[in-house]
Design goal:
Shape: globular
Helix content: under 10%
Order of helices and strands: EEEEEEEE
Number of helices: 0
């Protein structure tokens, strides 16, 4: 592992020496507590796609689910317990889509 650098992908941690190109694909700003968007330009078939969630209000990001067949990203606010209320979840966030080839 050169220099000890790894990135987290949906396949686990991947050594940066094994990744040739990282590129920005798309981004989408959202304010809805749940919903879905289609991102046709994003593909995770090689297992090295990454979706970053940036909250603009420093609250808990939404739970996400990506379907590579339909190219649809869905999100919602999960209910874990009475300790986390719906007001603790972000209502101002951005999804950023990356692909590493």
């Amino acid at each position: 592992m050169p220099y000890g650098f790894q990135i987290r992908t949906n396949q686990g941690l991947t050594d940066v020496a094994n990744i040739n190109v990282g590129r920005y694909v798309a981004e989408s700003s959202q304010t809805a507590s749940s919903g879905s968007i289609t991102v046709n330009a994003f593909d995770d078939s090689n297992g090295l796609g990454h979706i970053t969630i940036i909250t603009n209000d420093n609250k808990i990001p939404p739970r996400i689910s990506w379907n590579n067949s339909t190219k649809v990203l869905s999100w919602d606010r999960p209910t874990y317990s009475t300790l986390i209320t719906s007001g603790m979840y972000s209502s101002n966030f951005k999804f950023v889509f990356w692909r590493f080839d």
